[in-house]
Amino acid sequence: MAKEYGHYDDAAREYVITDPCTPWPWINYLGTEDFFGLISNTAGGYSFCKDAKFRRITRYRYNGVPMDAGGRYFYIKDGDTVWNPGWKPCKTPLDFYECRHGMNYTSIEGRKDGVTAKVLFFVPLKTWAEVQKLTLTNTTDKTRKLKLFSFQEWCLWNASTDMENFQRNFSTGEVEIDGSVIYHKTEYKERRNHYAYYSVNVPVQGFDTDRESFLGLYNGFDAPQAVLEGKPRGSVAHGWSPIASHYLEIELKPGQSRDLIFVLGYVENAQDDKWESKGVINKRMARETLSRLDTSAKVDAEFKRLCQYWDNLLQIFSVKSADERLDRTVNIWNQYQCMITFCFSRSASFFESGIGRGMGFRDSNQDLIGFVHQIPERARERIIDIASTQFADGGCYHQYQPLTKRGNDGIGGGFNDDPMWLIFGVCGYLRETGDFSILDEPVPFDNVPGSEKSLFEHLTISFDHVVNNLGPHGLPLIGRADWNDCLNLNCFSNDPDESFQTTENKTEGSKAESLMIAGLFVFSGRDYVELCRQLGKNAEADRAQKHIDAMIAAVEKYGWDGNWFLRAYDYYGRKVGSHENEEGQIFIESNGWCTMAGIGLKEGLCDKALDSVKERLDSEHGIVLNNPAFTKYYIEYGEISSYPAGYKENAGIFCHNNPWVIIGETVRGNGKAAMEYWRKICPAYIKDQTLHKVEPYVYSQMVAGKDAFRPGEGKNSWLTGTAAWNWYTITQFILGIKPTYNGLVIDPCISPDMKDFTVTRKFRGATYEIEIKNPNGATHGIKSITVDGKEICGNLIPIAAEGSLVHVTAVLQ
Ligand code: GLC
Ligand code: GLC
Questions:
Q1: Angle in degrees, CA 581, 417, 658, rounded to 5
Q2: What is the whole-number distance in angstroms between the Cα of residue 653 and the centre of ligand 1?
Q3: CA-to-CA distance for 132 and 565, rounded, in angstroms?
Q4: In 205, 664, 690, 784, which residue has its Cα 20 to 30 A from 141's Cα atom?
């Protein structure tokens, strides 16, 4: 059996890491709104408020040596031994180590020579601060005297310039020290109205705020001079690198336990209320927060509130089946990951530095389907933010910055799949909530006041953006790229110093068309038609349907390669993803989307396409993106061919798009294949944690494909559309509980070995207990349904009165 570094504790909703030396830092996220932290299993990571780039509170060095250096460190000096509860940075061998990653909290416990140190890290709800509750316990029968040093390194707010503008940075750092609270106020005296602080709830015996004084210029985090000597310096930072370290002398009687509460917080003051007196920052709000968190009882109550918040979120959908891996994925980790991707989009993980991308237009729309059932109000707000960055012609800014909510000029627009995702996201929201009022919201274009049109009109122009941008075969022009950011058919880049994402986009006269957008247009276009009908806009529905029919005809005529759907036409109008090509003969995206849309289902096209996917793209660890992988650079294809074979968009297993094929399989009723594919990429089924490398409790964007050097190696964990897509797929298409405008449709498509299961689903204020019985090992097709004991016709469970409990029993064929 392969080595394991940890295990699940489902009852506690935790993943328990028992070996600190994981094959890669295994991280978790703290915070639910505004104040956030990333924390690794050895307490590495950083914190920020609202924006990981512009409001970075603590410093982190990505891609450092050794890996994952810098974080929330506690040094315990016990005689000559110095150790940390999370093993790092001193790496002193511990007698016991355990890290528990839970829902927005992490607890790390270390034991050395009879002393236990346990730290609980979390961000209380509605609070701009991270609590670190340290519990020290003496398990021996002797009195123990320990020296404790805390440590945080401040970031000079802008995480990007913090890493490069040293001629300035080394002169700007400023702090204030007030009792046990260390304030970081760099740049506060000029244009900033915010500061950070780090405190402990008892008097300290010393402190340091200057890194060089604390560490010693030539020492690492693993050997701070002040700690080694057991003597804080009382340093006050002026420029250079401000830090915050408390020094405490602790005496523990035999069996005694002691809690210390450290708080890392952030404050924004009004412009005219910045100062207490000249040069002294106004600390009122910091003190208010600290007074809410200054005893164990208060902190425990806050922690309980956070746990209750998660109880409520996770009650909305849960499954009970014979497979605990399926249950824990659906009930805990997939939902949790969806919430994290909602909060962070693609900004801050251990693979996303927090300074690059803001919120993606397409990404955020897809993320919506993963959390809309939990926090519909915030989904609503997100939709309006996203739609406000659309242009009047239906095109969209590809990204926007969370702090300003403005479209990102650096990358601009021109990704022709973007507009359709708005329809996808909004319809997902409407089916869940029934909140049609959102469609009347006035929403501007490019955030320009006065340009507002209703959200519904935004949907119409989104739909029409595809219709108005068709190529020579009547298929959608691809623009800069479609979902695959790396299939750059209009770039022709020969300059290694330019980005494929932003270089000139030679769309003028281009014949490059996308079959992926075609499938998306048919799939989500039908959503648009259905919505129009729901609203009684029948003429508009008829108009849209005609375009969809024309698209289907174009795909059947020009998008079919004989055994699968083509991927695209290139700039010159040549086929991409055809058996005629030398490499990249077949791609996952177009085959996923066209089968999801059921294009040519009756004529057998879907069957053929899915069989070809199985034959050419499937592998032990999942479905690869394309085959054969590109082995040289194709200037007419761009970035996709820049990756080595088997990685990322070049024949990697892009877990984000595997669900498209899985849904395609459910369209043809092949529950066996659907579940087999799903289990291959679902983290709960990972067989070899060492090979997989990244966290075994969340999906990664990419797993190395069959052509890679080490197939099965995961990368880019956490922030990926994979979370929402797998959630959508497992709940709506495999377990088959679909929210619709008029109720829940029950339509599972499962593996024949799957026995009975029960889903509890809260929907529009009522609770549905849905028991699915599978006496004959069927894969799909409902034989009968009873609702509260009465048999119904069809498989739509109508919306019940708010507050009611509805019992549904569905029997499969
Ligand atoms: C990344 C991007 C996403 C894109 C995908 C494929 O996951 O966030 O927008 O669709 O890569 O290139
Ligand atoms: C790179 C990545 C892709 C991502 C894009 C946008 O091209 O391969 O996954 O979507 O960057 O940042």
A1: 65
A2: 13
A3: 54
A4: 205
Q: What's the pLDDT score for residue 410? A: 84
Q: How confident is the model at residue 244 (pLDDT cuts 50, 70, 90)?
A: very high
Rounded average pLDDT over 737-741? 98
- Separation between Cα atoms, residue 47 and residue 123, nearest integer Å: 10
Nearest atom in ligand 1 to the alpha carbon of residue 486 is 12
- Is 363 a pocket residue for ligand 1 (Cβ < 6 Å)? yes
Residue nearest atom 3 of ligand 2, based on CA coordinates = 485
Residue 476 clears pLDDT 80, i.e. is over it: yes
Mean pLDDT of 214-235: 98
Starting from the CA of residue 657, give the closest ligand.
1
Q: What ranges make up the beta strands (E) of 321-407?
A: 359-360, 399-400
User: DSSP string of 40-100?
Assistant: ETTSBEEEEES-TTTTEEE---TT-SSSS--B-EEEEEETTEEE-TTSTTTTPPPSEEEEE
- Please, which residues have CB within 8 angstroms of residue 661's CB and are 6 or more apart in sequence? 588, 591, 592, 595, 610, 613, 623, 677
Q: Given pLDDT bands bounded at 50, 70 and 90, which one contains residue 403?
A: confident
Give strand pairing partners of 105.
102, 122
Predicted local confidence at residue 549, as pLDDT: 98
Banded model confidence at residue 124, pLDDT cuts 50, 70, 90: very high
How far is the centre of ligand 1, averaged over its atoms, from the C-alpha of 577 (Å)?
A: 19
Contact 75, 152 (CB under 8 A): no
- For residue 554, which phi and psi values (nearest 5 degrees)? -65, -40
Q: Is the pTM of this model over 0.85?
A: yes
> 436-474 as b/e, with b when 16 or more CB fall inside 10 Å?
eebbebebbbbbeeeeebebbebbbbbbbbbbebbbebb
Query: Is the minimum distance from the CB of 184 to ligand 1 under 6 angstroms?
Result: no
User: Which one of 364, 516, 656, 717 would you pick to mutate in the ligand 1 pocket, going by the greatest count of ligand atoms within 8 A of its CB?
Assistant: 656
Q: In which band, very low, low, confident or very high, does the pLDDT at 335 lie, cut at 50, 70 and 90?
A: very high
Q: Residues 119, 124, 130, CA angle at the centre, nearest 5°?
A: 50
Closest atom of ligand 2 relative to the 701 alpha carbon: 9
Q: Residue 720 CA: which ligand 1 atom is closest?
A: 7
Q: Indicate the pairing of strand 257-268 with strand 129-138.
A: antiparallel
Please, which pLDDT band fits residue 59 given cuts at 50, 70 and 90? very high
- Read off the pLDDT of residues 788-813 as tens digits, 9 standing for 90 and up: 999 999 999 999 999 999 999 999 99
Closest residue CA from atom 10 of ligand 1 = 483
Length of the chain equals: 813
Ligand nearest to the CA of 341: 1
Question: Do the beta carbons of residue 552 and residue 519 sit within 8 Å?
Answer: no
Tell me the ligand closest to 718's alpha carbon.
1
Show which residues are catalytic. Answer: 485
Cβ–ligand 1 distance for 14 under 6 Å, the answer no
Helices 361-371 and 418-433 pack at an angle, to 10 degrees, of 20
Residue owning the nearest CA to atom 11 of ligand 2: 485
Helix (H) or strand (E) holding 316: none
Whether residue 90 is predicted with pLDDT greater than 80 in this model: the reply is yes
Residues 6+ apart with CB under 8 A from 706: 619, 620, 621, 624, 646, 651
> Closest Cα to residue 99, out of 46, 198, 25, 150?
25
| Span from the CA of 140 to the centroid of ligand 1 (angstroms) | 54
Which residues are bridge partners to 663 per DSSP?
A: none
DSSP letter for 562, please: S
Other C-beta atoms closer than 10 Å to the C-beta of 284 total 12
CA distance 760 to 734: 15
Tracing tokens 């995702």 back to the chain, one arrives at: 421
User: CB within 8 A of 201, min separation 6: which ones?
Assistant: 180, 260, 261, 262, 263, 290, 293, 294, 295
Judged against a pLDDT cut of 80, whether residue 357 lies above it is answered with no
DSSP 359: E
